[in-house]
Amino acid sequence: MRSIDGISDDGRTTVISARYLMIGGVAAALAGTAWVPQPAARATAPCRTSGLDVALGQGEGAAGHYYVPIVFTNFGGDACALRGYPGVSYVVDRRQVGDAAKREPGPVPALTLAPGQSAAAWLDQVNVDVYDPASCAPTPVDGLRVYPPDNTKPVFLAEPNARACAKHMPDQHPLVVRAVQDGNG
């Protein structure tokens, strides 16, 4: 078979052969390349209540306020992600007393807790004696119910001698919580 400028004597054999060669060449080139799909980078799973030790850290008082860190420690075997605000409220017999903690605006970092690592959210507890008793209705409580960020299972943290305002007080916030930050408070 004779070919001049890619055209054979019969006028199409070379063209067809060239097409097959072209397709075969691409297939050969791909066959020679070892392309193996890589798994997508695995995102760090969120911290779950069941894998966290939640406790109150060392607090400090100042002018009618008691500031205490709520410390979240990862006791699981893998790193986990923690970001946001915990849900916090006073409780008696597992029933909420008064309003839940107001969120204080501020930075909300995305944290990754390695096993054994801790992060903390500071809680401002206002002394109920600074409020008008008729507006507040001071009530002894058992402690705090805390929902770690992005969780629906709470933990109970005992607070002996704590008191809360049983009534809703517009524009007053006996509990104010900050977003979880690096460290243990």
How are the elements arranged and paired?
Elements: E1 3-4, E2 7-8, H1 13-32, E3 52-56, E4 60-62, E5 65-74, E6 80-82, E7 87-92, E8 95-97, E9 102-103, E10 111-113, E11 118-126, H2 133-136, E12 138-140, E13 143-147, E14 155-158, E15 163-165, E16 175-177, E17 181-182
Parallel strand pairs: 9-16
Antiparallel strand pairs: 1-2, 3-5, 4-5, 5-11, 6-10, 7-8, 7-13, 11-16, 11-17, 12-15, 13-14
Largest sheet: 7 strands, mixed
Number of helices: 2
Report the principal-axis shape: elongated
* Strand/helix succession: EEHEEEEEEEEEHEEEEEE
What is the residue-mean pLDDT, rounded to a whole number? 84
The assigned structural class equals mainly beta
Give helix % range: 10-25%
> Rg, please?
32 Å
**Percentage beta strand:** 35-45%
Low-confidence stretches: 1-31
Termini Cα gap: 86 Å
The total beta strand count reads 17
Could you please describe the fold and organization of this structure?
The chain is mainly β and 185 residues long. It is built from 2 helices and 17 strands. It has helices at residues 13-32, 133-136; strands at residues 3-4, 7-8, 52-56, 60-62, 65-74, 80-82, 87-92, 95-97, 102-103, 111-113, 118-126, 138-140, 143-147, 155-158, 163-165, 175-177, 181-182. The strands form 5 sheets. Strands 3, 4, 5, 9, 11, 16 and 17 form a 7-stranded mixed β-sheet that branches. A 4-stranded antiparallel β-sheet has the order 8-7-13-14, with no helix packed on it. A hairpin with a 2-residue loop joins β1 and β2. The termini are far apart. The relative contact order is 0.21. Residues 1-31 have low confidence and may be disordered.
